[in-house]
């Protein structure tokens, strides 16, 4: 065994692995109670160094548990261009996290042999964390792993997840994507944002005033840092800024989306646009109260429709031949899919849940807009599209309308964080479009009316008993389940339902949608009973929704 691997085994003594716990690198890395994660972070330090050697580039490690409660934490690795860790490495991460302390050397050696990694190459890793109190000691464990591997690293301290993705791309693109500093991130976004507002005439409906619910997390801190760069173009009030409440507790994008109500304590006037980030600021949803005080949510589906519509118009106005498409998951509201396909005539693809699946599908378009209904999403421009747009924006032979549209597209590309969904960047993109269209929240919301839906979760003995195909829209196991769902769905107007095993919790999720809330609730319940009966439900059988 090489000296480095022997050091890695020795180093594990300070980060012992508890017996009897099985860790899994899931859709968003490792997530668990922070108190048991120390050995996982040490091992991810080791793995990040190997990944950097394998890619001959800087990679990154983000310490966060996103929208989960404050006592949780987690870690995920980021590839050189700011993408999620390549899926094939998730297994290596899981194996290493579960290796006994004394077996760490052989576990590393297996990865080195399988991938023919030259261990003598240098490695370099960017590290950041969210605001959780468990962040600093877990960072230390990760750095210990990097140090025994002889890796160089930069610890950026507290950042949003998308900021770290952005920085690693800036670095590996040798500055082509932007300056590799946090200030550089604010400057790039703010410059594009201000330029896109330059020609904003007088507005009748759009008010440049927003309230941001920062989930008591890093998004609130970083919005405050962005603010001075925006001059006076937008009046932002940040609430749930971490000064009193707990991270993600009764606030943030997940709370607002799931509870369908504003965080308690927020003072909101009718029509006032409000924005909720999640705990690491890679998800965003908008909401407002209408003139009757009724809560209205503008989720990831509404955001993608808004963005795809605007970018589509710019592409046509520029005269460029670029195909633009939207990627959703099965959770997307049926009305949004119909609106995109039938009214906007935009092609829609459906991907499996989890950012990496959407990201991957979005690469199939010249301009691929992807969003999960929960508010995670961004836009990807292919290299070729980017090139064509840049050339057109500087082509004096084009008429000024075409050139102007291409110029706005270049600014939109600067404003959009293409590495991963970014609450701050997405928020600025939405503000830009609303301002250009002179729309109030109501105008945006009126594009289409959401169908009522219901999401339930069912505990079963083994959630892998449920298997799906067709981007999770069809259950292939257990036998008979899909047939039962089809029968139930057929009973109801605009009924739609699917089931899938969760990737983050030990449950099966049931989604149902229909033309009224009562029917969506009933359909979700009836499908839950089928899951319970056919897929080995545990505990009491699901009870029908109360009709009171
Ligand atoms: C993870 C995913 C998120 C997905 C969620 C589904 C990433 C970075 N995050 O949080 O995109 O919506 O899992 O959770 O991919 P579920 O499998 O428990 O329903
Ligand atoms: Mg998040």
From TrEMBL:
GO molecular function: metal ion binding; phosphoacetylglucosamine mutase activity
Pathway listed: Nucleotide-sugar biosynthesis; UDP-N-acetyl-alpha-D-glucosamine biosynthesis; N-acetyl-alpha-D-glucosamine 1-phosphate from alpha-D-glucosamine 6-phosphate (route I): step 2/2
Positions of the Alpha-D-phosphohexomutase alpha/beta/alpha domain: 53-101, 123-173
Residues at which substrate binds: 372-374, 500-504, 509
Annotated signal peptide: none
UniProt keyword Iron, yes or no: no
BP GO annotations: carbohydrate metabolic process; UDP-N-acetylglucosamine biosynthetic process
Its EC number(s): 5.4.2.3
Free-text cofactor note: Binds 1 Mg(2+) ion per subunit.
Residue ranges occupied by any Phosphoacetylglucosamine mutase AMG1 domain in the UniProt entry: 180-285, 299-439
SUPFAM superfamilies: Phosphoglucomutase, C-terminal domain, Phosphoglucomutase, first 3 domains
Enzyme class label: isomerase
The entry's keywords: Acetylation, Carbohydrate metabolism, Isomerase, Magnesium, Metal-binding, Phosphoprotein
Reactions accelerated catalytically: N-acetyl-alpha-D-glucosamine 1-phosphate = N-acetyl-D-glucosamine 6-phosphate
Recorded coiled-coil stretches: none
Cofactor(s) named in the record: Mg(2+)
Domain annotation Alpha-D-phosphohexomutase C-terminal: ranges: 468-527
CDD domains: PGM3
One Pfam family hit: AMG1_II
Top-level lineage group: Eukaryota
Residues the record marks as active site: 66
Keyword Chloroplast appears in the UniProt entry: no
Family according to the record: Belongs to the phosphohexose mutase family.
Name of the molecule in the record: Phosphoacetylglucosamine mutase
Species this chain originates from: Branchiostoma lanceolatum
Gene: PGM3
């Amino acid at each position: 065994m090489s000296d480095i691997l022997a050091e890695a085994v020795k180093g594990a003594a300070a980060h012992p692995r508890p017996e009897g716990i099985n860790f899994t690198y899931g859709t968003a890395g490792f997530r668990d109670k922070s108190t048991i994660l120390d050995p996982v972070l040490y091992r991810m330090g080791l793995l990040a160094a190997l990944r950097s050697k394998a890619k001959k580039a800087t990679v990154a490690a983000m310490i966060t548990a996103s929208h989960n409660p404050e006592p949780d934490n987690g870690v995920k690795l980021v590839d050189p261009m700011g993408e999620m860790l390549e899926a094939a490495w998730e297994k290596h991460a899981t194996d290493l996290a579960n290796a006994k302390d004394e077996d760490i050397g052989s576990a590393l050696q297996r990865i080195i042999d399988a991938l023919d990694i030259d261990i003598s190459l240098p490695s370099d890793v960017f590290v950041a964390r969210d605001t959780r109190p468990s962040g600093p000691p877990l960072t230390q464990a990760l750095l210990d792993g990097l140090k025994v591997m002889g890796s160089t690293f930069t610890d950026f301290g507290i950042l949003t997840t998308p900021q770290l993705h952005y920085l690693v791309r800036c670095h590996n693109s040798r500055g082509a994507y932007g300056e590799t500093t946090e200030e550089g991130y604010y400057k790039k976004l703010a410059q594009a944002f201000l330029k896109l507002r330059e020609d904003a005439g007088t507005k009748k409906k759009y008010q440049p005033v927003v309230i941001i619910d920062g989930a008591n997390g890093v998004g609130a801190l970083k919005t405050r840092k962005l603010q001075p760069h925006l001059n006076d173009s937008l009046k932002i009030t940040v609430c749930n800024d971490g000064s009193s409440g707990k991270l993600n507790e009764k606030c943030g994008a997940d709370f607002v989306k799931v509870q369908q109500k504003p965080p308690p304590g927020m003072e909101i006037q009718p029509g006032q646009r409000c924005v909720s980030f999640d705990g690491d600021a890679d998800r965003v949803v908008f909401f407002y109260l209408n003139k009757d005080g009724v809560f209205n949510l503008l989720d990831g589906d509404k955001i993608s429709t808004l963005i795809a519509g605007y970018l589509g118009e710019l592409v046509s106005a520029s005269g460029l031949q670029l195909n633009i498409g939207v990627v959703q998951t099965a959770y997307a509201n049926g009305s949004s899919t119909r609106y995109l396909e039938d009214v906007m005539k935009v092609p829609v693809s459906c991907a499996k849940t989890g950012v990496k699946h959407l990201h991957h599908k979005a690469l199939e378009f010249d301009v691929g807009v992807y969003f999960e209904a929960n508010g995670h999403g961004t836009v990807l421009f292919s290299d070729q599209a980017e090139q064509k747009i840049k050339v057109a924006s500087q082509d004096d032979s084009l008429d000024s309308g075409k050139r102007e549209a291409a110029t706005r597209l270049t600014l939109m590309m600067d404003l959009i964080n293409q590495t991963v969904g970014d609450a701050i960047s997405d928020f600025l993109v939405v503000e830009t479009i609303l301002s250009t269209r002179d729309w109030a929240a109501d105008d945006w919301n009126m594009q289409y009316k959401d169908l009522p839906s219901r999401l339930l979760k069912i505990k079963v003995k083994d959630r892998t008993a449920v298997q799906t195909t067709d981007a999770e829209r069809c259950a292939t196991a257990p036998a008979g389940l899909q047939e039962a769902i089809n029968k139930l769905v057929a009973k109801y107007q605009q009924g739609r339902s699917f089931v899938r095993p969760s990737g983050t919790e030990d449950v099966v999720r049931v989604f149902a949608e229909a033309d009224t809330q009562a029917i969506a609730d009933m359909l979700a319940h009836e499908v839950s009973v089928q899951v319970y009966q056919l897929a080995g439900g545990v505990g009491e059988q699901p009870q029908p929704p109360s009709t009171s």
